[in-house]
Design brief:
single chain, 7-stranded mixed beta sheet, Immunoglobulin-like, elongated, 7 helices, alpha+beta
Length: 340
């Protein structure tokens, strides 16, 4: 029994050292960003945490202080059982948290607009304004079961589970899903954006530091969800051009038939390169009409809208007038819009 207690005491002494060792070797991607959007989001976390600590720390200190000062054994502490109100105390209790809430609200509101994922970047890094005349690089992201397909429309290549980006280049991600709702998330690059079937979302971001990073889905989507990860690589522009040529030389053509085969559920899918892609593939994925003979969602909506417009006097089951045909501005998908 004594030997057992001795071992427990030794482990107790070593526990703090082991904890410090683990923390020293731990590198959190969220707190060590390689992209400017993730950097601004991290700074927002720091500022928000600091503002909240302005309340949390004094409250914890005062709890300990009051418990010690007004303990039963302290005869010097003032005992006033009839105390029920203090204007000064009420002013401090309500005004300080209110001011902090106002600051947090203003900070959240302004950063919500500044970090809007649909908004083009104002800068590509601290002190590096973005060139508004230069169009962002486009990467089309398709979340599958359980892998990621990245289509580079301008380079006419595609990859599975590997995303390569040139550093200091603004990138626009067009994001959708084939079947299940997922989230496109590379913590060191930017925040989490949902990928939903039949819909297209968007994210503008930039990677400022070369290196190998990881991305994944943060939304449970079935059996292979745990391994639904992709490799994110930041490279120089020259290395990016070399990588594009490598994909074009070593990859196979992504045809409609091979895409439909790729769309079937697989787990731990290896990195795969495609040397070419069908024109308008991403738009057809969004509109759920990749398979031959399938009617696109946008065409269905146009047909339905035209049919309703042809019967302007007809009313619905509750007496409401039918809406006019949806325009390109109001349609929830952009299947027949221009493809960059």
């Amino acid at each position: 029994m004594r030997e057992h207690l001795s071992h427990v005491r030794r482990l107790g002494r070593l526990a703090p050292l082991l904890t410090l060792g683990l923390l020293a070797g731990c590198e959190r991607a969220v707190l060590n960003p390689a992209g400017d959007i993730a950097l601004q989001q991290r700074n927002l976390i720091y500022i928000s945490t600091g503002l909240m600590l302005l309340i949390i720390v004094p409250v914890i200190v005062l709890i300990v202080l009051f418990a010690w000062r007004y303990r039963a054994g302290n005869r010097k502490a003032t005992y006033d059982p009839k105390f029920d109100h203090s204007t000064g105390l009420e002013l401090v209790i309500w005004s300080v948290p209110l001011l902090i809430i106002i600051c947090l609200g203003a900070l959240t509101w302004s950063n919500t607009h500044l970090l809007d994922p649909f908004r083009r970047l104002d800068r590509i890094g601290p002190g590096k304004p973005a060139d508004a005349a230069e169009a962002p690089m486009v990467v089309q992201v398709v979340a599958m079961d359980w892998k990621w397909l990245f289509i580079y429309p301008r380079e006419n290549i595609a990859t599975v589970n590997e995303l390569v980006l040139p550093v200091d280049r603004e990138v626009r991600f067009d994001i959708t899903s084939t079947n299940m709702m997922n989230t496109f998330y590379a913590p060191t690059l930017a925040g989490m954006i949902y990928a939903m079937p039949g819909m297209q979302s968007q994210l503008h971001a930039v990677l400022n530091r070369p290196g190998d990073y990881e991305g994944f889905s943060g939304n449970y989507s079935g059996a292979g969800f745990s391994d639904m990860r992709f490799r994110l690589r930041g490279v120089s522009p020259a290395q990016y051009d070399q990588w594009v040529r490598q994909a074009q030389d070593t990859g196979t053509a992504l045809t409609t038939e091979s895409y439909l085969a790729l769309e079937k559920p697989t787990e731990r899918h290896p990195v795969t390169y495609f040397s070419s892609t069908p024109h308008g593939l991403f738009d057809r994925v969004v509109n759920r009409c990749v398979a031959p003979g399938t009617t696109c969602i946008a065409d269905q909506m146009r047909h339905h809208g035209a049919a309703q417009a042809a019967r302007p006097g007809e009313r619905g089951p509750h007496g409401e007038a039918h809406a006019p045909a949806p325009s390109a501005r109001t349609a929830p998908v952009t299947g027949h819009g221009p493809s960059n």
